[in-house]
Fold:
Amino acid sequence: MMGAEDISAVYAVQQACYVPQMVEPEALIQQRWQQVADTSWLACDSAGPAAYLVAYRSLKNKVSALGEAFRHAECPDTLYLHDMAVHPRLRGSGIAGRLLASAHEYARANGLSWLGLVSVQDTLTFWRKLGFEPVVADADQQRVLATYTGPACYCLLPVAD
Structure:
């Protein structure tokens, strides 16, 4: 799990992974973590924090805008994976799959039916290999997806029993 002491390192991983327009402020990462610490995972290697996944309990087909605050939904059916980043030094190590497995297990244990996310930076092929499928965006979703830089696609994966 991610702790308050890890926020600066998470910000550094984000900077190493995303185009500058997609890097969210460190203060926002801190605020989000305070709201959803129970759904924030961190992976480290010998050099320190190197990958993370920040999610929150949400509703199917609800898409989060870039820079939006997080709050767990009262009657969720979906674990929304807002941000997963793996530092370039760990790419290909399988850590993304392990972080996703943690989120999947959390969703299963908490009775959630879906994992949802927004694919950005040409990652749709990666997410599809993991079983996520794109959802045709309605007008509200298109408006929110437009807050991301470049093509953005909302995707869902059913949570297996």
User: Anything to note?
Assistant: The helical segments are 7-17, 26-36, 95-109, 124-129, 139-145. The radius of gyration is 15 Å. The beta strands are 40-45, 48-58, 78-86, 114-119, 133-134, 153-158.
